[in-house]
């Protein structure tokens, strides 16, 4: 089993039980998609297995988020215990903050 779920007050609560790998990320996303289509929730919450999930776990989450967005269903992700998950692109990775570009042109030629 890859996920568990329950429904309360119009919200589909999904818990990813363990870090996903290439072999089970599609299964997790498909299970979430099936639950959303079957239950038509007002919103979806996904509890990730850790505060710093694997790339495959983020991939499944992104796929579920795109599907929910196309249906107009808000999706939120949390880490265990309701904490905020770390961003894979946040300052902890040393990545620079994005800057707006004018007319799509690069400023640092």
From TrEMBL:
Residues 75-109 are annotated as: Disordered. It comes from the Bacteria. This is STAS domain-containing protein.
């Amino acid at each position: 089993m890859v996920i568990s779920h329950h429904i309360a007050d119009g919200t589909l609560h999904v818990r990813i039980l363990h870090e996903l790998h290439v072999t089970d990320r599609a299964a997790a996303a498909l299970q979430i998609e099936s639950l959303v289509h079957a239950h038509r929730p007002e919103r979806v919450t996904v509890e990730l297995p850790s505060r710093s999930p694997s790339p495959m776990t983020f991939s499944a989450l992104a796929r579920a988020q795109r599907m929910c967005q196309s249906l107009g269903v808000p999706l939120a992700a949390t880490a265990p215990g309701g904490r905020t998950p770390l961003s894979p692109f946040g300052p902890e990775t040393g990545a620079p903050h994005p800057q707006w570009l004018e007319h799509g042109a690069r400023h640092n030629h």
